[in-house]
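Request: Not sure, any thoughts?
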Amino acid sequence: MFTGEYRYKIDVKKRLALPSKFRKELGAKVVITKGITKCLVVYTKNGWEEMLGKLGGLPITEPEARGFARVILAGAMEVGLDKLGRILIPDYLKKYADFKKEVVICGLNKELEIWDAKKWDEYITKQDEKMNKGEKKN
């Protein structure tokens, strides 16, 4: 299970280290693809197989479902972890997620999300505010 928030920098060779505590569970290769909220999603091999099953179950007669599957599948790339647990993120995915230098890797149970740090900070601030609105009423 992946949990937590980790800040890393993409190095000059365009590599990103994944948190050491996740490397054994991730294995030697992962699949990285576009996420729904302008972030990237990292799947283990088993997690990707589960996602493929879900995508295969979408109704092919619905244009939105087909479009979603196309974006996820066409954006996917299998990448290997090097000896230091780093992955090379393809340029088209970095561009999609608008990565600058610092990123946030979030553990989300069965997969990881990778966000540009500034976008993550803005997103999580809004989510925290929504979550804490109920406290202000008391």
Remarks:
- The chain has five helices and eight strands.
- The chain has one domain: 2-137.
- The first helix runs from residue 23 to 26.
- The radius of gyration is 16 Å.
